[in-house]
Amino acid sequence: xxxxxxxxxxxxxxxxxxxxxxxxxxxxxxxxxxxxxxxxxxxxxxxxxxxxxxxxxxxxxxxxxxxxxxxxxxxxxxxxxxxxxxxxxxxxxxxxxxxxxxxxxxxxxxxxxxxxxxxxxxxxxxxxxxxxxxxxxxxxxxxxxxxxxxxxxxx
Length: 155
Prior knowledge:
The protein is mostly beta strands. The chain contains one helix and 13 strands; from the N terminus they run H-E-E-E-E-E-E-E-E-E-E-E-E-E.
């Protein structure tokens, strides 16, 4: 049973043999009024992770490889990193620090900043591709790659 294949065939049938254009969206939804508050369209649906932070912040790693910070209440872009910084990034946060694990097994440590992209350090943390969220527990970071689970300790 292949969910991807089943989905593609269902879409082909639904759209009379033509797939809809590739695109992705961020939508802010008001659950009380049951409506979209704001929406941002991306040219592709292969975008990275997202996270929210105090101070009305929303962060995303885009399919174009950029980190983007948005105002959570309006969707206004506050800043964008240079390209090739966040391709397929799985991002998480601990306090005022963002941890971005990229698919090439590079862990980027980023200072939470409303004004600019502020990477603090970069580490190669695995021997093969990483496709899962890093897990933070106290001063430890768990990283899963294709063949192993690694524990890193932060001093």
